[in-house]
From TrEMBL:
The active site is at residue 37. GO terms for molecular function: ATP binding; pantoate-beta-alanine ligase activity. Pfam families: Pantoate_ligase. SUPFAM superfamilies: Nucleotidylyl transferase. GO terms for biological process: pantothenate biosynthetic process. It comes from Sphingomonas oligophenolica. This is Pantothenate synthetase. It catalyses: (R)-pantoate + beta-alanine + ATP = (R)-pantothenate + AMP + diphosphate + H(+). Beta-alanine binds at residue 61. Homodimer. The reaction proceeds by a bi uni uni bi ping pong mechanism.
């Protein structure tokens, strides 16, 4: 597995992979990799496909009071994981390479980015859309893989790929969870042992609410109960909401694909999770 840090070297390396007749799959990451990222690489691993992973902690998607400075960085461990997972090439640009002096462009996706984390984290999805557009233009993949754990991010990127005629297939990969149900996240390392135990209330509350809504119970009652469970566990809630799984619009009709989404803080750690409403 090769690692490249300059745009010229990236272009040469991707061209060499393409010369061998391969399609290119991109797995964008911010590093601090876990089994959720490995699942993205595994989903991408198919005959005739070369996998490029990117590792870049993108400053533009962190708010002023967020965790950019303490976001975990574990380059050597990440590279070992990507090698073992079967990745072919790693793109690791510096901040200066991505955003040289004078950088002045912003990609902003309307609609799907305007609720939930778009409200709780102003500017976050512009930062994501801008860096993902750059990664797409740099690597020029045929297909790109994103975790469903960041469900709204996935919706934003899908919308952007359609709107800008990017010609890149955007694939969502199911959330990977620990044995106790907590969704894998690079930010889970911030939780101390007590917070970690209490945090399992998040997937539990969402699971109970999702099953209740799928049975046809009143959705608002289910959300109220989920919020009460999270508050009792010590969470400070940003949102717990039911949305249309494609448009993320509120109050989705029961015959539409629906998703339950939540964001809440356990101590200083902000966790997000989501779950499909599995109608029979
Ligand atoms: O999901 C992430 O890790 C990041 O938001 C992404 C897509 C790599 C963009 O920085």
């Amino acid at each position: 597995m090769d690692t490249v840090r300059e745009i010229g070297a990236l272009r040469d390396a991707v061209a060499a992979l393409r010369d061998d007749g391969a399609a290119i799959a991109l797995v964008p990451t911010m590093g601090a990799l876990h089994d959720g990222h490995v699942a993205l690489v595994e989903a991408a691993r198919r005959p005739g496909v070369c996998i490029v992973a990117s590792i870049f902690v993108n400053p533009r998607q962190f708010g002023a009071n967020e965790d950019l400075a303490r976001y975990p960085r574990r380059e050597q461990a990440d590279l070992r994981m990507l090698t073992e997972a079967g990745c072919d090439l790693v793109w690791m640009p510096s901040v200066e390479t991505m955003y040289p002096d004078g950088f002045a462009t912003n990609i902003s996706v309307g609609g799907v980015s305007e609720t939930f984390d778009g409200v709780a984290r102003p500017g976050h999805f512009d930062g994501v859309a801008t860096v993902v557009t750059k990664l797409f233009n740099q690597v020029r993949p045929d297909i790109a893989y994103f975790g469903e754990k960041d469900f709204q991010q996935l919706a934003v990127i899908r919308r952007m790929a359609i709107d800008l005629d990017l010609g890149i297939d955007i694939v969502g990969v199911p959330t990977q969870r620990d044995d106790d149900g907590l969704a894998l996240s690079s930010r889970n390392v911030y939780l101390d042992v007590h917070e970690r135990a209490k945090a399992t209330a998040l997937p539990r509350a969402l699971g109970i609410a999702a099953r209740s809504i799928a049975r046809g119970d009143d959705a608002e009652d289910a959300l109220v109960e989920a919020r009460a469970t999270l508050n009792a566990a010590g969470f400070d809630i940003d949102y717990v909401a039911l949305a249309d799984a494609e448009t993320l619009a509120a109050n989705p009709a029961a015959d539409r694909p629906r998703r339950l989404l939540a964001a809440a803080r356990m101590g200083a750690t902000r966790l997000i999770d989501n779950i499909a409403i599995q109608d029979d």
